[in-house]
Amino acid sequence: MSSESRNVTVSENSAGQALLADDNLSSEVAIRVDAVSKCYQVYARPEDRLKQSVFPRLRRLIGKAPRAYFKEFWALKNVSLEIRKGETVGIIGRNGSGKSTLLQTICGTLTPTSGSVDVNGRVAALLELGAGFNPEFTGRENVYMSGVVLGLTHEQVEQRFDDIVAFADIGDFVEQPVKTYSSGMYVRLAFAVIAHADADILVIDEALSVGDVFFGQKCMRFLRKFKETGTVIFVSHDATAIVNLCERAVLLESGQLRMVGDAKSVCEAYHASTYNQAVKPAVSQRLEAVNEPARPDFRAERINATALRNDIEVFRFDPERAGFGNGAATITSAKLTDTSGNPMPWIVGGEVVRLVVDVSVHRALEQPIVGFFLKDRLGQPLFGDNTYLSYQHEPVSIGAGEVLTASFEFAMPILPQGHYSFDIAVADGTYHEHEQADWVHDGLVVESHTSSVSTGLVGIPFRDIKLDVRRSVP
Ligand SMILES: Nc1ncnc2c1ncn2[C@@H]1O[C@H](COP(=O)(O)OP(=O)(O)OP(=O)(O)O)[C@@H](O)[C@H]1O
Prior knowledge:
Elements: E1 7-12, E2 18-21, E3 29-42, H1 46-61, E4 71-84, E5 88-93, H2 99-107, E6 114-119, E7 123-126, H3 139-149, H4 154-168, H5 183-195, E8 201-205, H6 213-227, E9 231-235, H7 239-245, E10 248-253, E11 256-262, H8 263-274, H9 300-304, E12 311-314, E13 323-324, E14 329-337, E15 346-348, E16 352-361, E17 368-375, E18 381-386, H10 388-391, E19 403-411, E20 418-429, E21 434-448
Parallel strand pairs: 5-9, 5-10, 7-8, 8-9
Antiparallel strand pairs: 1-2, 1-6, 3-4, 3-6, 10-11, 12-15, 12-21, 13-21, 14-16, 16-19, 17-18, 17-20, 20-21
Helix pairs in contact: 3-4, 3-5, 4-5, 7-8
The structure holds adenosine-5'-triphosphate.
């Protein structure tokens, strides 16, 4: 859905009807929510709804005060918020705290009971699954319909149609009615449309990012690019996602705005509010200085004997994945092996592995650098490295038609559950001045199925953890 420069002020008249009025918005402000409240009428039984539509009128006719057959439920209470152009703002809160209600009032699909919402720019929103598309229409017809609803002309949709379908990557399904789509395909097409709508403001509910790992990464790349110039509102239960993507965040609790501030502080407040009492350090941990080479977690044997062993599935390298480069070389293979070079379809977090990358060289490379980084589902780099430092004084040049193999040996961190992907690249030059020959996004994907790590981006092998008790002398 979209709206361009929508200014709606709502207040209640004596009959409880919404009144609309215009308002002005400074050019620097993308969205202003002013004292917005939303009240739902909640009926205990279906017949109460019928009674409410008949009896109050009858009682008024005979001059008696009407009684209500519903209870009021305030999903938003007096929420005020200003989002400046170009900001990325996260909205966080528990289930039922009012996040969707607030988004819907911003997108104009829900009228507030009182207060005003002013929007300066074209909004494209990915909210409820099922909203926006007509299930009986084909993907193609829905692309045209929603493109036009988003403010594009028929000709503009026509020009962008192939790009939209390529982005969604749903193949011939685009000619099928969307009621035959899986939820993943539905979201892919819906996201592809909003990604091509020239919106000024994107409103995204992260719970909807149900696509596969490649699509998730594609959306994250798009979102990060869009963020450079556009305004984004991002809703999530996941504080890591909010801190990673947003500069500011808003914490909602029971329909009320509890806090607005930098994303990190707001997420810390959200964490604190999800515990009954503030979390205080309960154990005293002493970590000794690291002066020995890395060795496995001293608890690994115990953890690995349980269902919490960090089993990581390794998928096949896909050379066809999106990427870029000047074509001087092509990354033809990447695999994870053990230290003897045997390919590993599964690895265990904490163990020493090798990432082996093969590169076919088409034009001579004077000073090749091969590098990689591992990203989480948000596209956030977790770690990575390259061959530059090891070879800067003795570069290994390579001629056209030859094959270069790079190998990185490292202890795989313990990964929280989820999908991760390796970006792999080969360049020619120095650390500061080089040209990318080939860069493959998400070339190698791994999935962590089970994990003992639930907080933090990765777990690292621990050498020692102690509890010290100083008993008080009576
Ligand atoms: N049409 C409705 N009638 C009555 N109550 C409603 C209606 N829509 C939402 N609510 C209630 O309003 C409250 C806020 O709902 P909302 O969907 O905005 O929460 P949320 O923070 O988005 O939750 P979640 O994280 O579960 O999506 C909830 O208690 C919900 O039950």
